[in-house]
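In this supplementary section we document a worked example of the pipeline. Step one takes a protein sequence of length 458 as its only input; no multiple sequence alignment statistics are reported here. Step two produces a three-dimensional model, which step three serialises into structure tokens for compact storage. The input and output of this example are shown verbatim.
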Amino acid sequence: VAQSSKTHMNVLYIVVDDLRPELEPYGETVMHTPNIAALAKQSLIFDRAYCQFAFCAPSRNSFMTGRRPDRTQCWNFLNHFRETTGQNWVTMPQYFKNNGYFTTGLGKLYHPLLPPNGDPPSWSDFRDFPYINPLYLNCPDGNSWCSLNPAQYNFSDVLTLDFSLERMRYAAQNLSQPFFLGVGFHKPHLPFRAPDGFIELYPPADNITVAKHKTFPKGAPPIAWNGCLADSGYKDVTEKRDYLTPMSDAEAQRLRRGYYAAVSFTDSLVGKLLDEVQRLGLAENTIISIHGDHGWQLGEHNMWCKMSNFELGVRVPWMVHVPGVERCSGVHTSALAELVDVYPTLAELAGLPSPPDVDGKSQAPVFQANMPGVKNASFSQFPKCGTNMTDLNTCLKIDKHKIDYMGYSIRTDDYRYTEWFRWNGTSLRAELSETVAKELYDHHGDREEGFNSFENEN
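The serialised model returned by step three reads:
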């Protein structure tokens, strides 16, 4: 283990589940997120950052290791990298630990049990993550959203915040080594549960704007559609849908309002983390990175949740504050970035050697000069299972050898191209000679024109 001193900057690494870039730093004014907006004014803002897989466990296995999903072999909620090819891989926090950092993590950084127990090799100070209790995550009435009295109900993300603040204080006041503190907030994941006061930040549901393009793209193959919330199980989402039948405006408005409230709740917790960085005198030597784990669709193109290769399914907010790099404060970059880049980027920004054998590429050069970027494309993928091509499922708990299709998507400056292939369950690879469907979307001219410009209207 290398020795590291306080000359290396600390890292506060924040991951927010299901956070889409419909935020003030991205030119949007719908959601109330003053704390993320304040951080953005001190950060480099990546306008075109993308996850590699629009599902929680596969995405987190990917960005926490810096490897793409076909290497982690985590394509759903059944497998993780430690049980396949990555038994001896060094994860992002583990790499900082091996280079002399005190590493500790709380909340949803990895997906529950994937790998088990939050992956103890990643951490200097390991404790089981406190957010898993469903009593702290779900709405007691069984609805898709709820506003609850915090004096009567616990919230998993509040527990995560409290543990995180305690760990930050311990590291700042008792250690001579720098720290890597990972904090994973679960909300705005469904159901949209938030304390009282946050839903009131938004107008009544019937005044909430719905998606500009509510129908599935004309000519797009049905395999590209996901049926999330088509048969939801939530008591207040009762409509049955298919890929040609969008949700009613009334249900969409209620869901959007609940999502917004949950995002504002999480923003308030981010603010408390940032306040503690200031209070402890850590602001001058702490890198702060925040990103979503994948995108999120709120009715655009008749799709909800993540689970797609569409722009809104895979595009994430990502911003990084580096003390002393004033040229990047509040600056936007159009450089294409991927979540596999986070690991090598934070390592380089902290002054550590480049981690070996990762698929991501460091975006640190973008911080040093007004350069167009370090890569010319980003890549994402998603599986589908079943026999009815108009109602395939997301392979959530399907054995990886029994996946039926895999769609691979490439995003360049001006285009998104997705191709769907049959899956070979023996080799665990796509049969590139067996194309099932193709999609091409033109993104010419949609930069800096607002969030709806990324809806793939073609």
